[in-house]
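Posting this for the archive.
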Amino acid sequence: MSTQKAASSTVLIVKLGAIGDVVMALPAAHALWERGATIDWVCGAAVAPLLACYPWIRTIVVDEPAILKGTTGERLRALWGLWRVLGGRRYDLCATLYYDARYRAMTLPVRAGRRLMLSKTERETMLLPGRHHTDEYARILLGLADGERAAALAPVRPERLPESPLPRTVDRSRVILVPGGARNLMRDDALRRWPVENYVAVARELAARSVEVVLAGGPDDAWVLPYFAELEIVDKVGQLSLLETVSLMDESDVMVTHDTGPLHLAGITRAGVVSIFGPTDPRGRLPQRVNTVAIWGGEGFACRPCYDGFNFAACSNNGCMQQVTAEMVLREIALVIEQRANGARPPRIVTPASTVMAEV
């Protein structure tokens, strides 16, 4: 357990969501705390339970749907509620981890020694392409020089988790599949999804190998269930809280998904990770810890990656994701299970060509 430290500075972080962004900003916040900072974090209700697992963070919860998608009146009421909490507070650093200047309004009553926001033009506060977001948040929040840093920051494991909603009762491997996802409060990024039919093929083969297959995801992912109706799987889609999902992952061998929030949740657990990427760059998103792998589809595609941090290309057929086959994913699942049993391997990014070549 962490011990309370005498604070030498005070920091306010504004990062409402999404889950992946919050998880990738956590190591930088933890590094600040280790230097003696008190950390206050303005967040949405969806991620508040996760941040509460870190006793060194004090959360300030706002009505995120009202602020982002509400009427003018709803937005003003939500902002007023936040201003009443923050009014008169002083921080050494007020960090609003967004590019959109409209988020600056959230901290108007705060007295701050230094303020920062992400910038599209200033290198010092820009998430640089091709670099892992975890290390970029650390560079920005800790004010590090943009020089050589040999070691990457690993995800920060929660200190408080509930019991797993599905305890291990059988002596066989467990693999979690998250075929939905790629959706947040603002939009549905379907181009990031691996075809659900491929997940079905993986589930069918794993079940034939006597692997316990668990489907996970939020209530909005129920559309995937008919695809798995004839298979021997454990359905937990829409049935678990955020923390129960993390606990389930922590008790599993491998979690398989594409670039979505559950990928980053798995990164803070003990589970191995097999992820599928295409339009987004795994170099900035694959959890930087042992026994994680990304298969980056779209090899040879001139348009890969097409996500610029804000939008995707006007693409109606995500061929980059379709290039990754079920056989490639099954091979990586087997490798990660073997790695977890016999040791540990650093995070890896493989391509369809390198995966096929390794099978020959």
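The first helix runs from residue 19 to 34. The chain has two domains: 9-141, 174-359.
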